[in-house]
Design goal:
One of its GO terms (biological process) is methylation. This protein is α/β, with parallel strands linked by helices and about 160 residues long. The chain is built from six helices and five strands. β4, α5 (about 120-130) and β5 form a beta-alpha-beta unit.
């Protein structure tokens, strides 16, 4: 998490986490399919996806029909407690984007984060993504709006 955000005060109330789960906008099926199609370009075997900053799992469960296993990770115990428990290939854990000791190095096909990457320590999270991703793995950072980069060559990659 960013040093400017006090994560101890985020989603500590079960009522707050339940409301977040109920009222947060949902992502479209088209978003998940687009990310999965992109990931398949370099790695057609979709075994494991990790969704960091998953909250109650709205983005996590969107990947379940594409991957053998999907894991959601969030710093908030109450957010994880609100995640669904009845999806056989989906698991949720309390943890940090930059410290995933329960994930084997080189085992992840998709490392993703929906609408929460801004709250994570970027350098350390990218280092952990590099550790857990298998060769050809994909990092997908997404939200409700398309981001733009100041440099055209970077923006071209983001837009793809």
């Amino acid at each position: 998490m960013s040093t400017t955000v006090d994560k101890t005060k985020m989603y500590v109330s079960m009522d707050q986490s339940k409301a977040y789960s109920e009222f947060r906008p949902r992502y479209s099926d088209e978003l998940f399919k687009t990310i999965v199609d992109y990931a398949k370009e370099t790695n057609p075997n979709l075994n494991l996806a990790i969704d960091v900053g998953c909250g109650p799992g709205m983005s996590t469960i969107g990947f379940c029909k594409y991957f053998k296993k999907v894991m959601g990770v969030d710093v908030s115990e109450t957010q994880v407690a609100c995640a669904p428990k009845n999806i056989p290939n989906c698991e949720f854990k309390v943890g940090y984007s930059d410290k995933l000791p329960f994930i084997k190095s080189g085992s992840v096909d998709l490392f993703c984060s929906g609408e929460s990457f801004n709250l994570m320590p970027h350098k350390e999270t990218f280092a952990e993504a590099d550790r857990v991703l298998r060769p050809g793995g994909t990092i997908a950072l997404f939200g409700y709006d398309v981001i733009r980069a100041a440099k055209p060559e970077i923006d071209a990659v983001i837009q793809k």
